């Protein structure tokens, strides 16, 4: 008699993430598929919004205003005061307490949600399921659809060494679609050919984002942060002063540590070269260099209590990606 199949602990965790029972594989590969980015809306609909404090919930959809009045969401009941609308009287509480009470509601307003997506040359790398640039695009699509589903105005900037494309924040499906088509276009012009010069592209993108964001906007930055130099760090800190910033750090297993000692052939799609990983010291220095760069990124987000999630190109399932993003938590 065949045994009844059981779920592993990891599978149960993924199955319960945001009530998302999506075992589909991410397409991965070297370039994005705009059709897949659009289909992410089904996963984004069920994704648990990022678990931040209620006061600073960037994907909660509607931001509760501090102003008390008649709106959509019930806030509290208090004793009736002269000038209160009669239609707002809570007759049940009034009858129970023998004193007139009135209901108060919270006025709601949409909150802009901006996604900053890195599509630079350093992102055109991957050794497992997808290139980092593709995983970043899939992550951005999932976040964009989730934000729209919750009522936010969605916009963003896609940037590289050569250019950047901006989509203004709007609460419409067409705005998200435009963002995804721009993202797909930027991804498909990527190549392994090194960019000329040493452009401060991350710093420029953060500066541009600061100019279009209003105070208390929600911002999601998706990058490997390979160009987080001094000027970019200052721009990031300024952005964090007035907005709720979240980060997604994209990496590949080969960036963390070299493969076992041997001689390997590597390519950027244009040229080929060889590496020898037999040196123990070289492997240790390589791993330490990655840890130090990641430590710097973590420090910048931790200093303001901004959440940072690490994603790897080895993730294959939509549910794995959703589970990781649902785990973003602001301290």
TrEMBL record:
Species of origin: OM182 bacterium
Pfam family, one: DUF58
The protein's name in its UniProt record: DUF58 domain-containing protein
DUF58 domain segment(s): 76-289
InterPro entries, sorted: DUF58, vWFA_dom_sf
């Amino acid at each position: 008699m065949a045994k009844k199949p059981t779920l592993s602990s990891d599978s149960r965790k993924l199955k319960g993430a945001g009530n998302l029972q999506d075992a589909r594989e991410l397409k991965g590969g070297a370039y994005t598929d705009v059709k897949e980015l659009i289909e992410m809306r089904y996963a984004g609909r069920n994704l648990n919004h990022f678990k931040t404090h209620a006061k600073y919930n960037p994907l909660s959809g509607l931001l509760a205003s501090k102003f008390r009045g008649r709106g959509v969401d019930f806030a509290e009941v208090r004793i009736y005061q002269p000038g209160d609308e009669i239609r707002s009287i809570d007759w049940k509480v009034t009858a129970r307490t023998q004193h007139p009470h009135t209901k108060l509601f919270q006025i709601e307003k949409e909150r802009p949600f901006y996604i900053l997506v890195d599509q630079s040359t350093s992102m055109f790398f991957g050794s497992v399921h997808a290139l980092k640039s593709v995983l970043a695009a899939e992550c951005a699509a999932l976040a964009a659809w989730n934000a729209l589903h919750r009522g936010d105005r969605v916009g963003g900037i896609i940037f590289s060494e050569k250019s950047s494309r901006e989509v203004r924040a709007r609460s419409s499906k067409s705005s998200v679609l435009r963002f995804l088509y721009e993202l797909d276009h930027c991804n498909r012009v990527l190549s392994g050919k090194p960019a000329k010069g040493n452009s401060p592209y991350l710093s420029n993108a953060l500066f541009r984002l600061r100019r279009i964001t209003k105070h208390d906007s929600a911002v999601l930055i998706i990058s490997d942060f390979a160009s987080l130099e001094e000027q970019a760090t200052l721009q990031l800190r300024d952005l964090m002063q007035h907005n709720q910033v979240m980060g997604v750090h994209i990496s590949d297993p080969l960036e963390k540590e070299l493969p076992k000692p041997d001689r390997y052939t590597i390519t950027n799609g244009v040229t080929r070269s060889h590496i020898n990983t037999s040196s123990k010291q070289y492997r240790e220095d390589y791993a330490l260099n990655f840890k130090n760069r990641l430590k710097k990124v973590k420090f910048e987000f931790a200093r303001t209590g901004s959440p940072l999630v690490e994603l790897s190109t080895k993730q294959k399932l939509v549910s794995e990606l959703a589970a990781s993003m649902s785990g973003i938590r602001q301290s």
